[in-house]
Amino acid sequence: xxxxxxxxxxxxxxxxxxxxxxxxxxxxxxxxxxxxxxxxxxxxxxxxxxxxxxxxxxxxxxxxxxxxxxxxxxxxxxxxxxxxxxxxxxxxxxxxxxxxxxxxxxxxxxxxxxxxxxxxxxxxxxxxxxxxxxxxxxxxxxxxxxxxxxxxxxxxxxxxxxxxxxxxxxxxxxxxxxxxxxxxxxxxxxxxxxxxxxxxxxxxxxxxxxxxxxxxxxxxxxxxxxxxxxxxxxxxxxxxxxxxxxxxxxxxxxxxxxxxxxxxxxxxxxxxxxxxxxxxxxxxxxxxxxxxxxxxxxxxxxxxxxxxxxxxxxxxxxxxxxxxxxxxxxxxxxxxxxxxxxxxxxxxxxxxxxxxxxxxxxxxxx
Length: 366
Hints:
40% of the residues are buried. The protein is of the alpha+beta class. Strand 14 (273-274) and strand 15 form a beta hairpin. The chain is built from 9 helices and 20 strands.
């Protein structure tokens, strides 16, 4: 599939880390001076930044830009392929994608399911039109309709496979209701901590029973509008100047690939962001003006502020260990409109938590 047809332009960052406002450059794939860099980006494993908030997709001008937040992107290729494989997508299945953005994964799904069976539900009107036009250029029979992805597909009925192109803090009940017997639903669960997403796979048996499995991931899909994460940028200089008071700890910095732990810790240790630019593990709670900086392997940690961030991490890890170091969790969706409770499965219930409510979604352009 010619992915570049669906992504005729892209933003690349040109400013350094921590710059405010962020400086970017818009690449135009049809311009000879941009084409080589544009093609290299599209055929890499990186996500492609496509749109900043409020701007018209039919009036973009190549060259340098500053400011605004990125609101649309195409997720890097391997994640898209892996998601479709996890769903066991097959020809003849009805498949809605909720929040397809420019439609790259929707195009792949349409090529598998067959004509008229794959569809997208996009909140952003201009993006829906943009994706529909480019899907048509590829000759794919896949409709992109304007609607609320949190409410599922606007058509009545059920679907064999459902995938969300946006991350949500909990599963919207409409999506569960539209899952057919034997169906599979795949979505990213965004947490209160950046870069600690979970992937939730929901299956419905032929008898109608639901099974939902949550797994930690190194990265996930963009979060829904209205979901806000903390940032360590505003505290970076202060942390470097005063990392805090040293105290002993028996907890070595947990490795980045301990996804099962970080997923569990993202809920009780919420509102904390990792500064990946720091030389040693640095966790910041901006709202509490608190942080923790791990020592260079000397059995100490430095802490600052009224909140004991590292103490919370120590406590979360102790409970994770007592629970058997789980790498996946069960989510109770028996009543999707009620509390959605997460547990590590059989054994001690020391890691049980409830998924937070959906955030309010700001209005979108018509």
